Amino acid sequence: MLTGRYIVLIEDDSLMGSSIVQRLELEGAEVTWVKQAVRGIAAVRTPRRLVDAVVCDIRLPGGTGEDVFNAISRSIPPPPFLFITGQGEIDQAVRLLRAGGADYMTKPFEMASFLGRLALILRPDPDAGLPPETGISVLARQVDALVSEFARIDLPVLIRGQRGLGKARLALRIHDLSDRRAAPFIHVNAHNDERAGDALSGALDTVSDGTLFVNGIDRLDDGVQGRLMDAIGTGSFRLVASFGSGPDAESEEGGVRSDLMYAMVAHVIVVPPLSQRVDDAVWMAGRLFQSMNERHPTSLRGISDLAMAAIRDHDWPGNGRELRSRMLRAMEVADGDWIFPTDLFPELNEDAREVRTLAQAREQAERRHIVKALEQTGGQIAEAARLLEVSRTTLWEKMKKLGL
Questions:
Q1: How crowded is residue 324: how many other Cβ atoms within 10 Å of its Cβ?
Q2: What does the DSSP 8-state code read for residue 194?
Q3: In CATH, what number is assigned to the domain containing residue 252?
Q4: pLDDT tens-digit readout, 173-217
Q5: Are residues 194 and 307 both part of a single domain?
């Protein structure tokens, strides 16, 4: 029943905790068990993998289950919480349900009843028949889970992220997983089309019951956005739209009419940049090598470990689009059996002739270390700052300076 599921247990009672862990593992689940409130917060906010459910005691050392739930909810959408409570804490448990908790059980309880209640609240399994699309990191799997979830909800979706992150691919996947997949999928790119308003009018005439993806919705003028808002009201098609989430995100959001933004804001997918997902960069490089080699076979055996290390160290300002371009170049110029760092990054030949200053070397080392901390904490700046033993403000300033 729980095969492959990941559960976080926050329980300080050793006897009860060990009993729950033993039974959950017998059912096939992977369990992380922590006994303190602060460790429970960290285990859920920065997990090893996507958390399917949290089993949380109300009374804990260093806080309460309510403290844990509220702290997590302030930074991320919380996974389903099943609270364990004593008779005197039922009012608190009911309050937590009103705040967004999934369920509660009073002690003592039968294990069979506990498993049944837990099964009812589990997060929909994003891996059920769906291989990783965005990447293998926790951040990427969260994106894929939202794509799967929003495909089942026939409402407008907003995808935010820098250029080169495959927002159009995610929009198409939402369409392909939805009940509208037999109808047209129409892509209007307002970034590259000076006549995007005319293109949108034509798309509205032909989309029928399908999906309309507007890439760069903030680039449309107010009148065109008004026509789009009116068309949404008919309910005949589904809108998926995108704009950026970089340093100028506030100005981009300001380019979208408030009524149109409100129509989309309930279902938002934020795609983190590749600089925060180094494992995904390596994974994507491997997939690109395989697909490119299948289309145009070469004598290459693969990507060398040195090249993989260089991929990890690069900051990928162009995200996946840059990675694809560099892989294309490497496949064309590689001489021998393997792709090496200079095949991907020809600028390394220039760097080798230059002696960097100590300040430049220090910045590069700091950048790699910050990226590693962000990856380990799932992109949570406060947790990364704690790991690096600096204040959140200091970390934020360094990230801005280093272009993260």
A1: 16
A2: T
A3: 3.40.50.300
A4: 999 999 999 999 999 988 766 677 788 888 888 999 999 999 989
A5: no
Amino acid found at 136: I
Euclidean distance between CA atoms 334 and 342, whole angstroms: 9
Structure tokens at 360: 């430049």
Do 30 and 80 have their domain in common? Answer: yes
Q: Do 186 and 286 fall into the same domain? A: no
The DSSP call for residue 88 is G
Query: Where a domain ends, among 272, 299, 315?
Result: 272
- Per-residue pLDDT tens for 229-287? 999 888 789 999 998 754 344 444 557 888 889 888 889 999 999 988 888 999 999 99
Enclosing domain of residue 180: 138-272
Domain count across the chain: 4
What's the chain's length in residues?
404
Phi first, then psi, for residue 235 (nearest 5°) are 75, 10
| Same domain? 252 vs 339 | no
Write out the DSSP string of 110-154.
-HHHHHHHHHHHPPP-TTSS---SS-SSHHHHHHHHHHHHHHTS-
pTM, two decimal places: 0.60
Tokens 């704009």 locate to 243
3-state secondary structure 280-303: HHHHHHHHHHHHHHHHCCCCCCEE
Same domain, 146 and 178: yes
